[in-house]
Every structure is written in C-alpha cells, then in structure tokens.
Design a protein that fits this description.
Two copies of one chain form a homodimer. By secondary structure, chain A is mainly alpha-helical. Chain A has 31 helices and nine strands. Chains A, B: It is found in: Membrane.
Chain lengths: 690, 690
C-alpha cells in the first residue's frame, strides 16, 4: 500500500476525530509490561557468554539484592529531605503572611494579605507554565497511568521536578486550598526515576518490572512523607494506583517508606516542625452510637460524590472555554486567588492551615483560634462550606495541587459539626472521634480508598476507635463509588490519558475480539524491504508499540518493537550515508529527524511530506528503500512469541487479559493468520462510538 | 490411537512416578479462573432471551448488589457466632482442667492433668480421622491453593466443618500448643461455600470470580474473628493467600470482616470473654534504641526460619515413617501430648493460655502468674524455649492446628527477654513495646507477612510505637524469607498440592514453552465419534480440565471442558440405553459409574478394563462408540476461544501467564496448529526432572 494513501487515510479516520472529546495531544508512549518480562533477562543471557553469578544476583529481583536495597534507602531519605524542606518553606511563607498583617488598619492588612496571596499564586502559575506544564495537577492520576504502562514524555524531567516543588510551595503559601500529597507523590516519582538512571542502579531502569516496583515504592514514600505514616502510605498508594497488586511488591514499598518516615521524623525533630498531635480518645466499643456514625458515613459519601462532581464540572467548563475572558491561565488564578484571600482573611480560624484545623478538631482546642468566639456550630458550618468550595475552585487552577489535606480538614470540621447534632441524642465524650471519622470518611468518599482510615490511625497514634471509623469509611466509600468515579479516575478521564476504561457488562458479554479490533494496522512480511518498514512505522502511530511480521500466507510469526525498527532504519542509513548525493542525504536526514522527533513536535509533518515527494521522485531514495530487511539483525531484536488471541475470544476475556498482563496491544488471529489488532484505544473507541 | 495403549502408556509414565516425592493422591480438581470469566455471563445471555435488568443487577459484580451484601453480612456474623462459641468451649475446657487439679497431692494433680490432656487430644485425633481427614492441619495453605484455582474434594464438606471445630477445641483444650487462626479460616471458608449454595446466593457459587472474592472475604473474616482485627485481618489474608490481589476485592473483604468484628465484639461483651487488653505504651520516637529493635528483628528472623525448618523436618520425618512404631496416628499424638502435659504442668506460668501470656508480657503483670517467683529472665527463657519446641511438635500431630497464637506468645516472651538484655544499655520504660515488637516479628518471620504488625496494632489499640515495630518486622521478614519458604508454603509443598511453583531465574531464561510442554495430551478432531471422546476423557486424567478440538489439518479450533464431555456422553447413552441388550447396558453402565467415580476410588480401574475388553469384542458397544459427536450440542458447551500460546514463548512469560490468569492449562501452537499442552504439573516436572 502506498505511503501517501496510508497517511491520507489516517488523517481521515484519525483516532482523535473518532473521540472528539479527547484532546489531540500525543505526548505519551505506551509500553507493554508483558513484553518486558523476559527482555532484560534475555539480554543478560545473550549479550555476554556467561555472566558471573554475582552480576546475576545484583540485577535479580532477590529480596536482599544490595543495589535495590540501597536505591530504596536513597529514595526514602531523599524524599524525606525534599519533603521536609518544602514543608519548611510552606510554613515560613505562612508565618510571613501573618507577620505582614500586623499594621493597625484592618483595611491595610486586608490589602497586604490579598496582594501577598496574588503575588505568590501568580508566581506559582508563572513558574509552572514556564518550566513545565506537566507539573500542573495532582500527579497521582499520571502515576497511575505510568504504573499501568503509559510513558509520559517530560513528566519525569528535572524541569518538572522544580516546577512542581516551587509551584506547590508558592500556591499553598499563597493561600490556595490545596494539598501536598499528590505533588509529593509526583516528586518522589521523579526522584525515583533519576535514581534509577545512576549507573550502579541502571538495571532497575532497564527492567520494567523492577522499575515499576521502584516507582510504586516512590508513591508510597510520597504519601508517607506527608503524614509520617509508612503503613498507611503503602496501602493508600496501592489503592489509588493499582487495579491489581503483586503482593510481594508490598515489601519494597514498606521498606522504602519506613526509611522515608525515619528521615522525616528525624528532620522534623531537629527542625521543630509542627505535626498532627497524637490523640487520647477513650476506648470506643459497640453501642447504639454506632448508628450515628453510620449516618455520618452516608453524609460523607454524598458530600464526597458532590465534591468530585463539582470539581470535574469546573475543570470541564474551563476546558470548553465558554468565557475566554475568564479562563486565561493567569486571569483565572487571579480570580480564584482573590476569592480565597478575601474569604480566608475574614475570620481568625479561616486563616489557619489545614494541619492546625485538624489539631483543633481532634483535640477540641477551639478557643485558641477563636472558633467559639460567637457560636461554635455556626463557625464550623461556615468553615466547612467555604473549605469545600475553595478546595474545588483551587483544584481547577493551573497549579500543582493535591486533595488530601484540605479534604481531611473539611471532613474533620464536618465530623465536629455532626457531633454537635449527635450530642442531642448521645451524650458521650467522643468529640474528637467524630472529627477523625469524618475526616477519613470524606477522603474515602472522594478518593475511593479504605486505607485512608489507616493513615488517620497512624497520625492520631490510636486505633481504639476502629469500629466507628471503619464502619463509617466503608459506608462513605460504598455510597460515593456507586454514584461516581474516584477523583483520580475523573482527572484521568479529563486528561484523556490512555488508561484502560472499565466496560459495561452488557458490552463485555455481547461482543468478542472481532467486534472491536482494528482492521488497519501496521505489518510487514518476512521478505519486506526498508520502504515497507517505513510504512509500518508510520502506520503504527502512537497507539501500537510493536509491528507484526507475517509469512507469505499471513501467518503471524514474530513482532518487532517500533523503536527497534527505527533504530534499525537509522543504522542502515548510517552505514550507507557516505555514498549518497547531498540532495538524497538531505531528504533522508530530514526523515530521520522526523522519526526521532515524531509525536514531539507536530510541525515535523511537513518534513515528512517532503520526504514522501522525494520517495516518489528521487531514484537514490527509491533504491535505498528497496534494500531488504535482515530479520536476524540484533538491532531488530525479533520477538518470536508475539501475544495473539483468537478472533472469537469474548470481550470480557480480552479486557481481563489487558488488565492482568498490562498489555498495550494484542494480535487477533484466525487459524494462525493475522486478521486484526487491538490496542487500548480500541476499548475506548468501542465505549464512545463516533 | 487405541485406548489400551494409551492406558498402558499412562500407567508407564504416570506423572506420579515422575515425581516420586509427591503422594499419589488425586483428591483435587484444578479449575481455570480464566475460563470462567465469561461463562456465567454468557449463560445469562444465551439461556433466556432477554434477562430482566433487575436480574442482571442481582447477579452482577456491582458494589451495591444486595444479594452479595447480604451474603457477606451473613458470612461475617455466622463466622463470629461460630468463632465465639468455639472460644467459649476452649475457655471452659481450660477452666475445667484447672478445676480438676485442686486435690492436695501434687502427684495426683499431675496424673489428672496428664490424663485429662491425653483424653482430649486422643478424642481430637479420633474425631478428626473419623469424620474427615481433610480437617487436619492449618487450612490456610489449602485455602491458598483453592483461591489459585484448585478444587479440593471434601475440603468444604459439613463433615470437615464439624471435624475441624471439635478437633481444634479438644486439641487446644487438651493442652497442645497450637493456634486457632488457620482452622478458623478454614471454617469460615466452609461457611462461605455453604452460604453460596443457598438458592438466592447461587449466582455467587456459579461465578468463579465472585466466588473467589467471597472466599477471600471468608479468609479475612476468619482472621478478624480471632483477633477482633478487621483491618489486620484483611491485610493478613491478602498476604498469606495471594500472589497478586485485585485491589477492588479489598472492599468486600473489609465489609465482611467488619461485620464479623462487630458480631464478635458484641458476643464477647455479652459473654464476658477475656480479650487481649489495650495497652498504654508511651510515645516512641526516633532515638538510639532503634538499634536495639534492629537486633531484635534479626534474631526473630533467624528464630522464625529455624522454626519453619524444624517443623517441616519433623513432618517429613514422620511421613517417611522411619520408626513405624512411633508414627501411628494415635501413638504419636499420645507421645506429644504427654510431653506437652508434663512440661505445662510444671510451673504456674507454663499453664497459662497464649492470650494470658501475651497480656502478661504487654502489661508487665508478672507477679499475678508467678513469673518472677524466682528469676524473671530465667522464667522467660524457659518458657520461650519450651513454647517454641512444643509448638513445633504439636504442629506435626494429626489435628487441626494454626500457628499464630502460640508464636505471638513465644515472640512476646522472647521480646521481653531481649528487653532484659537491652535494659543494660537503654534505661527506657518500653517493656511492653519490646514484647509487642517481638511478637509481631517472630510471626512475620514465620509466615512472611508484614501485616501482622497491623494485627498487633489493632489488639494493643495503639500505633504510637510504629517505628520500632515496622523496622523490626521488616528485618525479621527479610532475614527469614531470604533463608526459607514461609511456613504455609512449606506445608503446601509437603502436602503436594498443585500450587504453581516459582522457578529458578536461570530456568526461566533458558527455556521456552516447547521445552516443558507435554507431547501426550487428549485431543479430538471435528469429525470425532464417541469412542474418540472416551479416549480423550481418559487421556485428560486429573491434570487437564479441557480437551482441545482440532480440524483435519491440526489447527486448534475449540475446546471442551472434560466435565461437559462426560455429561454429553451420559446424555447420549441415556437417549439410547433402552435399545441395548442387557449385557451391553451392563458394560456401559459400569463405564458410566467409572466416569462418575473416577479419581474418587482407585479400584474402579477394574471396571474400566472390563469395559475396554467389551469395547474390542461387543458389536453393540462398538456401534454405540461409532456415533459421531454433534459439536453444536448445548451440553458440550464448546468454547471457541481456547487460550493458545506460541511454542517459542519464553518460559518466563508462560509462568507469568499462569500466575496472572490463574490458568490450569494452555495450548501450545505452531502457526495455528496444536503441537502440545502445558499444565501446572508440567512446571513441577520441569523443576524436578526424573
């Protein structure tokens, strides 16, 4: 098939046109966990004749492999250090803001307060957008996508690292109501990526299984560093990032987060940082008050679903750009920032940071911050509503932002408010318990996790009240998850990342692989030439990472990674390029540039069209593209066990295979002959037909 | 191929002969998780024209599906009730034993004590062996095998249920040093199986995915009922039974175990049962004493590995039957029982049950039970060594037995002993913390779990001391798991259950599917007759659950469940049996009996050989077997998407596929043609070549 027609066809039926709701950016590559399983080990056995047993041990998955242990310790401690200094910076900014408003005039104070907030927030937006736009948002949805096999360009770069750190410090310092756990997870993910690139740890980087374990450990350490909760961190990270979890990975995640917790505890003791104080709740047994906690769980579940709904709508609304005047990056943040600054200035307790609010709620230290100056329930209600709305608004800005801390604070306040009501019926002394249960339940409803209960247990230092806690959390989780997606999945959907959507049962039952497979896909035969390879690379686009090789009867024999195919093309070009005329060399050079930069810069398309013209007209180029491919070449790295399934496999099974094996693509065969291909995109298409 | 030769060949190369170490019992069936995914849903769509949406909802995996919720509540509460009454019975037996030894003569007391123990223990052995031998042992390894797709016959029967309950009550009452968590897990698994057979819950039973989730919830509830620890129960059950875990299952497990915990707390409050008391440890931060906990972790790790080693050796020694005089079921228990009775009678503190020991250690209530009558460290040392050895001996008896409680007690005592040493260097007031950390670390080292830390947190009610706890537990886990298998995996290996062994990296890298596949396997062609089907059923033996169907060129088209094939054969026979002569009917009837009873009773082989003779000589039988198979028959339930992999697939990938998809067998193809089959047994064979 001619290259022209293939390009034209792809333009016509572009996958993005089929899904008009999804943004047309392709800054990701999808890798295939299943493909990688034997790759590294195969390399170890084919590259050197007999690797020493020490070398095998040092690159193995063994639990005592010292290089992995060292990398985990380093990751834990570095995350702790970064986390500590970020916390310190945020705390100092918050002190500074309070320091500035000590003039005698309240109006002057308010002006200073607002200007201080605006400057910091706009700086946060500027730095984020200048250094790396990938730093925007939470980071947890993207980590989830990465752990499921998607490779995001620039997401793990140094620029993103600094953009995220500075952005989140300035945004929280500037009074926006956002949390730190998402950004911390992202930051520790970046630290992990760069640690794994250090030469002595390079085997971690090249082994996708180990690398994923290492990244999962980074996610756990990121959570643990925010709340000093190694156990809760591990469990929470499992719940928010995984569909299934290899149980033996838990050990590495726990090992890393305990080092992180040790580091952070030690640093905070030195730095005398404020922390959430241990509580001293009474023992809570089983009595009628449990019904009160059941109602609290229901309410929190509804509130959580409402929060997810409002936040996603806000973001979608902004993306649709209905009022262009309003939705500019800087203007929008300015608006939100002024709202936040005005609201937080008004009363003493609104100025508190989330940790202080949580401490007040858990320990009933209300008079310290003026909660009960007028009327405690009224103050709680006002704070709760404001916090809820401000958090939702803040999340829609172009800044790095988490959700956990503000929601914990809002939940704790809501729990206390509910306790004021419940005290009309039950006269127990469980004030703080309601706050703790409310906090965990609201977060559970929003993030669809149960393990947040463990996080709250860890920072209260008690587990005496597990009964009301887990009952309420389970109910909140159930209510919310039967109403809506979790906030992280909602973000994933808005961002259009290729995570594997869950399909409706009816669809799973009624269809089979044949019904959703792609009929146009790249492929080459065993007697293909370079031109065919170029066609196939073009055809593979971003959604296929491998090209199948068939024999003359169409039987599927091997497959090749698109990247290996590119390398092979380049290596053949380099072998011969001295013999080309300058004109030909220019054309081919442009094409190579195109191959390398493809997906990064869309304007490279022109270079490619130029090449296409040359291909039709330039004899030398034609001759070059006529060279047969040597399938035995080491560069091509042929895989002789492509993953193929029968065309009549039910969709339920195909979906299960993609989830469990972390597949990116599967070949569909009929009696051994290749008849189609399925990629993750095929599932999304089948869910949202044009 | 003739049936005779196939039988003869299988006898010659029996899989059991290839693995002489594994016992020749075949009381299990292996099911295939992957096969079941679409089965139920397909049924729902094909059996009735359009099922009502309510019916679909009631059989769906939806989180709010009321039938599943109800089943989980019922399971949780029933487990709690059974657990409570078992605890009560054990407690009463222990009181009774102390009540009997109030005579004035110490020698008489000792006699009564020993006889009391012997009577109860022998009763336990008698009842277990009379009712159901499947009740012996822990139950957790078997549940692990079941959750990975192995079906154990009789393991979930009512007889086993009562045998396990009575056995464990009498054995603990009789002074053997065993725990309850393993038997409880088994018991709640049986409850789950029978609940899922109730008509309104029958969709749970027929849907393997839901059923497995339900069983996993039962395991969690079993653990939770022993320690009143819903969170720890869920995590522990995940760690001991799963290789990977579908994160969304966690919700169901947590939901079930919270109901169980509520039930048990309520019953214990009514029944005034003794429980492990909440502790009041001081806050433990980061200081130099952490090194002391590191050493404790190392020591516990070594002790745990030693325990596993000693126990497995004891059991293997017994199975090899070197001293037949010693190893009779009753005689052996008599021996162990006398040893236990004598040792426990000697001092006051040796008579305590595990819970009381744990309370003493955590709360320093030593004088109450005479720990410090002479010399505390000496008493601790004596108790520790005795407990360690007695537990190991008790586990080798033919009784239902868990390991958690006695090891927690031994670990707590060991922690206290270590604290006596550590107090020479550190003069802190953390006595109880050492006991708690020691208890968790020793269990962690033995069972290779981290979540036991959460269990201990839950029953101490505190989490203030998470730092020393998790450091020590991680170290103990690491040390032990780098030395040996976990105790549950060791039991699995001794019992010869077909769990998927982990393979050595070198083997995974050097071999591919072709190297381990079976060349002799059942198969039929699309034009097969009943005789071919019979051959294939015979050939399938216990290790293949499905029979492939190929076309005339050998291309793999469909497969059939062995059970469906049997049903089909029987249905055809029933259609025609009125037309047979009595002689023929007799032969075929015998054969049907053989088909139904096969694997259950080995002497049925003779019936089969008789049938073989008839097949050669009886014209009517020959004619019957010549009937062509109607592949479209609903009874055969043809699957048109058999799971096939390329013959050159590396072993690492094949192994990964089996683990992740819960496969029992896979077809090996070359260009679409069937060339071999791999079952779980193939992996075991390749690991232990003849």
């Amino acid at each position: 098939m001619s290259l022209y027609s293939s390009v034209a066809r792809r333009r016509r039926e572009s996958i993005f046109q089929i899904n008009p709701n999804r943004p047309a950016k392709a800054n990701f590559i999808i890798t295939d966990l299943f493909t990688n399983i034997d790759e590294v080990t195969k390399k170890a056995f084919t590259s050197s004749a007999s690797p020493s047993s020490l070398k095998i041990f040092l690159t193995s998955h063994h639990i005592l492999n010292p290089t992995v242990l060292l990398a985990l310790i380093l990751l834990g401690l570095l995350t702790a250090v970064v986390s500590f200094f970020m916390d310190l910076a945020i705390q100092e900014l918050q002190y500074l803001r309070l320091f500035f408003i000590q003039t005698s005039s309240e109006i002057l104070n308010m002006g200073i307060w607002i200007i201080f907030c605006i400057v910091l927030c706009e700086l946060a937006v500027f730095i984020t957008s200048y250094l790396s736009k990938d730093a925007e948002g939470s980071g947890i949805p993207e980590m989830k996508a990465i752990l499921s096999g998607v490779k995001l360009r620039n997401f793990m770069s140094y620029k993103t690292f600094f953009a995220k750190i500075i952005g989140v410090v300035f945004a929280i310092g500037g009074g926006l109501s956002i949390g730190r756990e998402g950004p911390f997870v992202h930051i520790s993910g970046i630290i992990a990526t760069h640690i794994s690139k250090i030469p002595i740890f390079s085997h971690i980087h090249s082994n996708l299984t180990l690398k994923n374990q290492f990244l999962a450990a980074a996610v756990a350490a990121g959570i643990a560093s925010v709340f000093e909760c190694p156990i809760g961190g591990v469990l929470y990270s499992i719940e928010v990032t995984s569909t299934y979890y290899i149980v033996s990975n838990m050990w590495r995640a726990a090992f890393c987060s305990i080092w992180c917790a040790i580091g952070i505890i030690w640093l905070r003791e030195i730095g005398q940082m404020k922390v959430i104080n241990s509580t001293d709740f009474p023992d809570v047994g089983l009595d009628l008050e449990i019904f009160s906690f059941i109602i609290l769980g229901c309410l929190c579940g509804l509130l959580g679903a409402l929060f997810i709904n409002i936040t996603s709508r806000l973001i979608s609304l902004k993306e649709q750009n209905i009022y262009p005047m309003l939705y500019g990056r800087y203007r929008y943040t300015l608006l939100i920032c002024i709202i936040c600054a005005v609201v937080t200035f008004l009363t003493n307790y609104m100025r508190l940071n989330d940790m202080a609010v949580i401490n007040d709620m858990f320990h009933s230290t209300f008079s310290e911050h003026g909660w009960d100056d007028y009327n405690l329930p009224f103050a709680l209600l006002v704070f709760g509503i404001c916090k809820f709305l401000l958090t939702s608004l803040s999340l829609s800005c172009h800044i790095p932002a988490g959700v956990l801390y503000p929601l914990l604070a809002a939940g704790a306040v809501f729990g206390r408010l509910f306790q004021q009501l419940a005290s009309l019926v039950f006269t127990s002394d469980r004030h703080g318990v309601y706050a703790a249960v409310g906090a965990a339940s609201l977060v559970s409803a929003t993030t669809h996790t149960i393990s947040v209960a463990v996080i709250v247990f860890e920072f209260t230092g008690q587990i005496h009240y597990f009964l009301p806690m887990i009952v309420s959390v389970l109910i909140a989780y159930t209510v919310s998850s039967s109403l809506t997606l979790s906030i992280y999945d909602a973000f994933l959907e808005i961002k259009g990342l290729p995570y594997l959507p869950s399909l409706k049962p009816a669809k799973l039952q009624a269809q089979c692989a044949r019904d959703i497979m792609e009929y146009s896909y790249p492929q080459i035969t065993i007697s293909a030439n370079l031109g065919d390879l170029v066609d196939a690379i073009e055809e593979a686009s971003v959604f296929f990472s491998k090209i199948p090789v068939v024999d003359s009867e169409g039987n599927l024999l091997y497959d090749i990674l698109v990247n290996s195919a590119k390398e092979y093309f380049i290596s053949i070009y380099k072998e011969r390029h001295s013999s080309f005329s300058p004109d030909t060399a220019g054309h081919l050079n442009n094409f190579l540039l195109y191959l390398e930069k493809k997906n990064k810069e869309s304007m490279m398309g022109e270079t490619f069209e130029e090449f296409l013209l040359a291909k039709e007209n330039n004899e030398e180029v034609k001759k070059f593209l006529n060279i047969s491919i040597d399938l035995k070449s080491e560069i091509l790295n042929l895989d002789d066990s492509p993953f193929a399934i029968n065309e009549s496999t039910p969709l339920a099974k195909v979906h299960f295979l993609f989830i469990m094996l972390g597949l990116n693509q599967a070949y569909i065969i009929r009696k051994g002959a290749l008849v189609g291909m399925i990629s993750r995109e095929s599932f999304t298409k089948s869910r949202n037909p044009a």
